[in-house]
Amino acid sequence: MSIQKWSDDILMGELAEEPNFSEDLTSLAEMLGQESQDVVLNFKAVDFLNSSNIARLLKLRKTILSGGKRLVLCGINNQVWGVFLVTGLDKIFEYTNDTATALALLQLGQEESV
To answer: How many CB atoms neighbour CB 101 within 10 A?
Structure first.
C-alpha cells in the first residue's frame, strides 16, 4: 500500500489484494499507534475480502475511533460492496465514491470542530 500523508491530520492509503492487504493494514495500524489521524482507504484495487481482512479493518476502525478520528473507505467495487452489505459492515463504516470526496468530507469535519 502506498500511504501518503495528505495533510497533518489525514493519512491516505491505497489498498492492494492479498497478501499485501493484511500487511498494509498492519503497517497502517502501527503508524497510527504513534499519533491520532483521520484515514482514507481507497479500495479501487481490491476485488475480494476474507474474514481476516474484515477483522483487520474492524481493528483499525477501533484504533482510529478511539483516538477521536475518522476512517473513510472509498472506491469500493460492487463485489466487495456485496461483502459489506451481507456482513452488515455497511452500517458501521463511512463510505464515499472516491478519494476527493472522502478528503473533502474529512476536511469539512475538521473545520466544524475548530
So the answer is: 14
CA-angle at 52, arms to 48 and 60, nearest 5°:
100
Nearest to 32 by CA among 74, 73, 64: 64
pLDDT at residue 26 is higher than 90: no
* Amino acid occupying residue 33: G
Burial class for 64, CB neighbours closer than 10 Å (0-12, 13-18, 19+): buried
Q: Position 81: which residue type? A: W
Instruction: Report pLDDT digits (tens) over 51-62.
Output: 999 999 999 999
**If you average pLDDT over residues 21-27, what whole number do you get?**
84
| Nearest one of 15, 61, 14 to 38, comparing CA atoms | 61
Arithmetic mean of pLDDT, 86-90:
95
Name the β-bridge partners of 73: 41, 95
C-beta neighbour count of 112 within 10 angstroms: 7
pLDDT tops 50 at residue 72: yes
Q: Which domains does the chain have, with CATH numbers?
A: 2-113 (3.30.750.24)
